[in-house]
Records
---
Amino acid sequence: MREKGGDVNDSEDMFLKLTAHIKEALLNLSSSKLRSALALLGILVGTASVVAMVSGGQLATNEALKQFKTLGTDLLAVSINDVPNDDQTSHSEESLTLQQVMAVTQTEGQIRDVAPYTQLYNPIQYNGHTLNGAVLGVTENFAKIVHVNVVRGRFISSLDRYSPFCVVGHQLYEQMKAISFVDPLGKQIQVGSDFFTIVGVADAWPDNSFVYANIDSAILVPILASTALSKYAEINNFIVQLVPNANIDMITHHLQQAVQHYVPNKRLYVRSAKELITSMGKQSKILTVFLGLIGSISLIVGGIGVMNIMLVSVVERRREIGIRLAVGARRVDIRSLFLIEAVMLSLVGGISGVVVGIVIEYIIAFLWHWEFMWFFWPPVIGFSVSVAIGIFFGFYPAHQASQLDPIEALRSD
Amino acid sequence: MSALISLENITKTYVTGESEFHALKGVDFQLQSGEMVAIMGSSGSGKSTLMNIMGFLDHCTTGRYCFSGRDVSRLKDDELAAIRNQKVGFVFQSFFLLPRLNALQNVMLPLFYRGEEESSAKLKALNILEKVGVRDFITHKPNQLSGGQQQRVAIARALVGNPEVIFADEPTGSLDSKTSHDVMQLLIDLNQQEQRTIVIITHDKEISFMCPRVVTMKDGCVA
């Protein structure tokens, strides 16, 4: 009752018409099933790719961050390197001693603990077989700070000092077992010309970019023993554990000054777990945006598919449009009719795309052995973008339909 | 009593490129409420153009069109749509039912665009379908109906909004003579029993003989 109706009736009218339009749209779409299915497929693939790519990127980031989270964010990795110099002959022979490292780090109130370590690449031999692996000279607290679990035997103790004892990494342990067919624990291993007794076995250690060595394929010896093994065993790295909420900049500055005092020709590089996590977070944001954009491109292609199908539909249904105009449909009615059809296509495509996208995310997590997680935003964004695309690409055909001249439309066949 | 439809010096000119075609060259025409009139003419005589203008499907180029005493010559699209919806019903030569909708849904369509509630629209549509004699076929799609049945459904659709005038453009053009006669009889009954105003566009003399008043068009003028 358009003439008599007040404001209350108008909104009721709108609702009635909307539900009727939706019913009609579904009827029309189902009457050309194959074509609707194809248009829907385009939107589905687009939405699924947005959801799967963004969620997959998030999973990858979480996985990468996990290694830091197990280590803790309160660590600093300090390395002491030669200053790059034009004069190559002035390679400094001097390096920090263990006492100096302790002195440098113990003066600072914000440092809880420190684990210096040396790295050697002497040949390792076991039962006449040469093994590939590094020799790390470590202190007792190394295990605690970088989370090395000893599954059998014991870790290096500060009492060991120069004693020839060692702990073997998980991977080396397995290799040794395969060579000798007996438990290597308690047996001897040859490093260079010296023999070390195996006193402990480390558990598998998750690789991370914070410690410059793979403990799985290394043997760990007392740090003093390592300096006795070779003159190349220098304490060039140490890992500092900070008190909570420590001032990283201040500590870095302090360490720089202190190290400069002992070895003026060297330079200090400090990386904090916190910084690494923030920079990884930034990178992952870029990755997420990038993946989202790639997904959106396929969504736009899907939108063009919807537009194409709607344009064909408008041409095919010119007579229907004419009939509707003749019985009193306004231009806005015709526009809503076609717009709602386009939106219904994208709505259904969007919903199924979200489902397919989450399934793909699950498959990715399963194949890479990542932990599956539910993310809130990727499905929401994927779904709303697909509906927006439906409205955007549906509007032009719907507008075309609404601008038809009733007589022209009735005459066409 | 003023006329339901009053046309004064209506012209319609189609411009295609540089050539102009004068479909109507100054038509004066009056239609009283309750009349049944046949507009006769050969093809190209302008009878369809005249119906399109009287039925608010098209604008006239010049002239004055009064409907129920109101000047409607220069109305906007949406106002025309509202008048088509409320005051006018159309019956076409090839029925023009929507193929995907069944008979009942087709008849309910004008009421839907009026924003009428579904239950009352359904009731009205069923009543009208009963009156035109196709009550048994309400769930049939148009392609499951004979030509005569389709035209009856189309007439029901024209009547359901209780319009002030029904325009029938060659309503029997696609029907055999027996069904033609039945459909014409239905229109005549509607005019005589319910005083419906009916305008029939036709080139068929036999059809025009059945109407109380005949207007003949020739070369864009009322002859």
---
Amino acid sequence: MCRVFSLISVPSGAKFFDLDLIRKHNMAHEALLQEYEARRARALAGGGEEKYARRTAKGVWNARQRIDYLMDPGSFIESGLFGSSAVYPEMENETQTDGKLAGFGRIDGRDVCLVVNDFTVKGASTSATNSKKIGHMKRTAIERGMPLVLIGESTGARLPDAMGSRGMGLLLGNDNTQFRRLREVPTAAAAFGPSFGSSTWLMCQSDFAIMHKSAIMAVSSPGLVSMALGEKVSAEELGGWRLHAEVTGLIDQFADTEEEVFDQIRKFLSYMPSHHREAPADVPVPAGSGADMAKVFDILPESRTQVYDMKRVIKCIVDKDSLFEMKPRFGKSAVTALARLGGKSVGIIANNPLHRGGALDADACRKIVDFIVMCDSFNIPFVMLVDTPGFQIGTEAERAGAPGKIMNFMNAMTLVTVPHISVIVRKSYGRAYVCMGGGRHSDEVGAWPSAEVSFMSPDFATKIVHGVGHGEPGFEEALADIRKGADVWGLAAVYAAQSVIRPQDTRDYLIRMLDVYKLRMSKGVGQHLMRSWPTSY
Amino acid sequence: MARIEVKSEITGTVWQLKAKPGDKVEGGDTLIVIESMKMEIPVITEDGGTVTEILVKEKDPVSEGQVVAIIEE
């Protein structure tokens, strides 16, 4: 266009082809391109070579290294490379990209939206331009149906940008969808190093949150805590990976290495659809899947006083090497895991007698509910494997608000719209029987011959019903009577178990039943009645 | 060297000690067995290391969340 303009704007009488003028315009183009390249180089340099080199020396990856590792080669296209501080234009050269890199790329051939914080630029603190980038990535992901990946490392809100009433009014709260979570696209988040403020918030709002062991997730830094409260606390104690993996349950996984963080994100996304209006993709069934089923019943000890690791049972049943556990150190009497059965994504919810004998405490309930909500929101059928003596009782359980957590669990089970099958492996007592899919709280109940269902453990029921305790005359006879009434055949007789199955047939049974109950009329898409379920509730 | 507190997940009575100070352990190993709800419930360490202290003895009552062993990672 410029060249045409130069030709038609020559003064009358001049030569039609004014070569000098054309050369001048060509030089202007060159100058523009030179400026472009110079600006691009400055933007790509982020916080500068020295800062990048210091991180590299410590074995910490830089933002662009993280992008290169996560994305399919050559697939990343950046959005906002030339962004910088909108609050202080004079700081353009110190705020390259405004500290957060955004863009589109592919993971295993599938388009995703991505934000990766660049800690070398103002500690990747949140300000006006980079907030617009995050907002645009989130909006595009949701409107066009792409997973969203958020890689955090941040000092929190940028100061002084957000200081004072003008700063607050300009920077905070102007997008009321910023923290709206309707589970429309799978969201995976990671936290590295200091991850205060938005990096912590986004972890809490994601469907999969993984923490590098270097990361600290907290509302504020130990320094501010010390100043404001006089509380001396280490960063680890305030928001280290152990706290979040074992106590708060705010993260799903943790990792020792950078590679592991991104490998886990990639693996998580492989189980998920791109958005909530499609079913997850099938994959080929790995050779050797189901090979250990013949031995699955041997995992159960014959003595009912002894415990076992339910994860061994799960590994036998699901496709080979497909088990992907969530929150392994939180609420450990329950196991929640993504996996595949016959090449199809499936959620696994199981009691684990190895911990608390399988009794469900408040943490285990919360973990299961989080997982049910995710599976139902993203059209992932799930399987429940039941061996629980019931909900955890005692003062600790009550202090943790167990009844509220139990009713959340109960409520969630009434709102599930994806196929879900329950298999009673051993014990299923009391209200937990219903929460774990008993009655019509699952599409189909199968039970092993070892299943034992009653309102409470036969030992305690014997004392209450017959008034005799351990060691007292008549106890053994009374216990045998109570136990007989709890066996699987009563459940099958009244059609509360639709099938009693040989343990070694469990894998085939589940694959067949998930196919029987598939959502034919909606192409595998559920109703998402829990899509606005509160985070970490 | 991180000092890791291993806690009982459940209220009950110590039935067996499976580890002693000086033992090298791996994540997933059972250190102590608690009798609770008529079951034998293991106290399992998530992290490997060396056991430096066992803070209970057989037949001791333990409560949920009580630190029962210390491991140096």
